[in-house]
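Continuing the batch. This is chain 6 of the set; chains 1 through 5 are on the previous pages. Same settings as before, nothing changed between runs. Recording input and output for traceability.
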Amino acid sequence: MKYLYSALLLAVIFTGWAVTIPLTRGIFSIAIGDVDLNGLKDIVVGHIFYDTVDAPSFTVLYNYSNGSFAFADSTIMFGTMQGSIQLENMNDDAWPDIVCQYDINGVEQQFARVYFNQNGSFGTYIDYPFTGECHFNEIRTGDVNGDGYGDIIFYSWAWGYIWALVSDGPDQFLPLHEWELSFYPQDICVGDVDNDGDDEVIIAGLPLTIFDFTDSGWQQITLNNSPFHSKVKIGDADGDGVNEIFTLEIPPAGYVFPVRIYKFLDGRIELKYEDLNQLMGGLRVYDYNNDGLADYTLARHLFTNLGGYNFSESTLVFPQLGESSGAETADMNNDGYLDLVFMCAQNGLAYLTILFGDGEGNFAHKPVAVPEEELPAPNTLTLKNYPNPFTTFTRFTIAGNSKHQMGEIVIYNIKGQLIRKLSLADNGQDFVWDGLTDDNRDASPGVYLCRYVDRSGVTSTIKILKTN
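Output for chain 6:
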């Protein structure tokens, strides 16, 4: 079965600073790569949907001329939400394949589904049954044994497990390897951090942990006396050609969000940099100015790498967007500089926004310098809950500069079925969910998606776990 191509280009909206790509379904995740090998970066969008399971799980957006996209909408209606869509070469050709999640009746039976790239289109797929101790929440891909074939890493932030499906030749895998952790993994990154040509699996949590696949099997390296880590990325911070590990800590309470950089050297994890700041925002790591040193951003703040683990702080220049659930970086117009691809929504409509970088910290087609004090503050909010996992109740808190009077939290199960609505009245900032459904029954143990929407349309979505 093959994708059906649209006869027309997408209704791409051009402005002086961005390209906006409207979509007909919600965005859960994106992966960027040259799907059709035409020299331009394409986008695979993993969808989120609540009202039906009869919907495509991803859409491919083909980049034809530096920002003009055509789309192929899936004719395969397998209806599994994609929170971590991946592009990886899973066989012995040059075409990147799509690796996604597939399940039957929620988590009753789970699979890794690989859609094989056939000269730029997708139709043939293989489902690899998942046989772990409990269900997985997300996947990552990489090449942990250096054989040139993609491997699949599963993890459960809800149960504290990690699994690895390591290739043993084209379309062949070793038996699923499982680790039960002593902590809940918050985030996972797969990449080479010791310059051995193989990827390592880096796990953010408490403690920071690395799994390294060697000739003698998997080796676990743990940072002793580790602080907590919420997000993890990699990049070459010191210019030696070897990636370092960047982490962000988001504490359950308080207003300090530490960024740390670690080096993995001779089987040890060493702290090289720490910045205790009050900036709340997603951590991104990329070399925005092409000087060979990895920089990082938090929200609109850019930390430019000056060498020697010294960074200068400035403000990214780009216009205010609607609600954004995250961004990826790639050179989308082949000018040699990385661009930002934001996942956005406004008034219930989903769209991607591409902001073009100029290598100087400006993300605009023709950037105009704007003093920091004149930059408009974006409407942002962050939904958190504690405890998580929970058994009888959990409390939600809302932080950010968006007005949140008269908002509501809508809770869905992983099948997209509405479970509960919680309303926020007056100037309150806290919700408590007692674990009951709207018809006053106990909600089943499992993973739930909780989406907060304020009266101006700004939203935030998190995943939580209810246990017995």
